[in-house]
Structures are given as structure tokens and as C-alpha cells.
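pinned: reference chain
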Amino acid sequence: MSRVIHTHIKDEAQMIRRLKEEGYFNIFVWEDRAGTRYAEHTHPHHEVRWVISGVLEIEEGGKIVRLEAGDRLESPPHTPHSAYVPQTVRYVCASR
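pinned: its C-alpha cells
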């Protein structure tokens, strides 16, 4: 099961620096426009989505988690989830 950490960190450079220190790779910044949907899928690695600005909703196991600026979602490998963007969102993605 994924977990949400409310970090209050909203600085992109600080997020990226912290993820590198934690051993994450494939670190990049992504942006989705309001209304974007991602069908249920999985990732082969431990994944992080750390919101810089906007809102991202992740559905996992029938529950919806709303992520806002400063929120960090950590998901184990092969966790089925879908996503919806109710408000344009910018976030840092990383794998480990």
C-alpha cells in the first residue's frame, strides 16, 4: 500500500536534491493539465510522486488520495493505481 507524507516542501530543487540523496534515479519533473486521466497501471520500481503545485488524485484499492503541493506519495513496486488531475499539477517523479 502506498503512503502519503505531508512534507510542506514545495521547492523543486530541494525535492530533487533530497531524492538523489535517498538513492532515487530517473528523477524528472512532470506536468499534467486539468482533466488528465491515467487508467489503472503499475510500475516495476518503488515510485515517488512529489507535488510542486496543483492537485493530483490517485486511486488505489478503491480509495482516492488527494495530493496537493508539498505532498509526497511513495508506492511499492507493482501497486495497481489510476490517476486523475482535477487541477493542473506539476510534480517530481522518481524511481528506486
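why pinned: The longest strand covers residues 81-95. The chain is about 10% helix and 60% strand.
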